[in-house]
Amino acid sequence: MLNRATIDRAVAAALEEDAPWGDVTSAYLIVETAIARADLVARESGVFSGGEVFEAAFRLTDPRIEVELVVEDGAWFAPGDVLATVEGPARGVLTAERVGLNFTQRMSGVATLTGRYVAEVAHTGARIADTRKTTPGLRAFERHAVVNGGGHNHRYSLSDAVMAKDNHLAVLSRKGVSITAALQGAIARLPHTTHVEVEVDRLDQIEAVLAAGVGTIMLDNFSLDDLRAGVAQVAGRATVEASGGVSLETVRAIAETGVDVISVGALTHSARALDLGLDVRIDLA
Questions:
Q1: I need a labelling partner for 150 at 20 to 30 A (CA). Which of 34, 111, 174, 194 fits?
Q2: What is the pTM of this model?
Q3: Residue 20: CB partners within 8 Å, gap ≥ 6?
Q4: For this structure, is 175 an active site residue?
């Protein structure tokens, strides 16, 4: 998902946004021959993510800049740890600094938050999964970070799977169409490799959905008692996903109801950027 082409395209756009006509501060204050050496240092603990993206910010600014990643994506780190080193022409290092930091701070924040959710449910069989509530244009980056934190990816886009939500079911109901028949008709026309998931918000909707032979049923905003009842009712006939009302305070209890997957929009829409800094030393010789 996060390949070099995707990284370079997004990072190049970010560099153009940040220095559309060059970095005038560095160009006028820093001599051309100056060399910078810098350490990417953690100011707080967390999970590292975005190493290749960080490197790309410097490589695309000036290919003479060398970046060495000290830790791998997915590694936990402590305050004061050096995560990467940078060396090269000072003008380029200073120009790329903010873009490189912005990406890896954001991605490490997502990975760290995901890691905290994963730790809360580690004693259960539940997976923590992301959602499509991602920053536009940065989905591949944020989903990569979720995996670095020990989570799993949901469908990547609307093109990847059938996911009938409450609004889809409401349209069918208004048209007087049987939910079971509509789902069966769709499944009959779909390629056999396409997964089908349906969201329900009441226990009495479950049987009609299961009768169609769907792969996953999402129990949306269910109480803990209803989640337990829903898991018992499904009884292994489909994967059970819980969604809605999920936080670090509630995820453990949700996982203990026996659901297979817990999707958490907060992993990407509410993660704060982690505090990382680039400590730069400049040699004017």
A1: 194
A2: 0.94
A3: none
A4: no
Burial class for 280, CB neighbours closer than 10 Å (0-12, 13-18, 19+): middle
* CB contact burial 109-135 (16+ within 10 A = b; e otherwise): bbbbbbbbbbebbeebebbbbbbbebe
DSSP state of 203: G
pLDDT at 285 over 70: no
133 classed as catalytic:
yes
Taking the CA atoms of 83, 3, 264 and 255 in sequence, report the sign of the dihedral they define: negative
Q: Work out whether strand 276-283 and strand 35-42 pair parallel, antiparallel, or are unpaired.
A: antiparallel
DSSP 8-state class, residue 205 = G
Write down the catalytic residue from 39, 220, 226, 256: 220
* Amino acid identity at 237: R
Q: Out of 37, 98, 116, 155, pick the active-site residue.
A: 98
- Of 52, 142, 199, 260, the catalytic one is 199
One-letter amino acid for residue 176 of the chain:
G
User: Can you tell me the distance from the alpha carbon of 99 to that of 11, in angstroms, rounded to the nearest whole number?
Assistant: 8
Q: Which of 116, 132, 165, 237 is catalytic?
A: 165
Provide the CA 224 distance to its chain's centre, in angstroms. Answer: 26
Q: Provide the token pair at 199.
A: 């969201």
Helix or strand (DSSP H, E) at 172: helix 166-174
pLDDT, tens digit (0-9, with 9 covering 90-100), for 200-236:
999 999 999 999 999 999 999 999 999 999 999 999 9
**By the 8 A CB rule, do 237 and 210 touch?**
yes
Helix (H, G, I), strand (E, B) or coil at 9: helix
d(CA 28, CA 7): 30
What are the percentages of helix, strand and coil residues in the chain, rounded to 5? 40, 20, 35
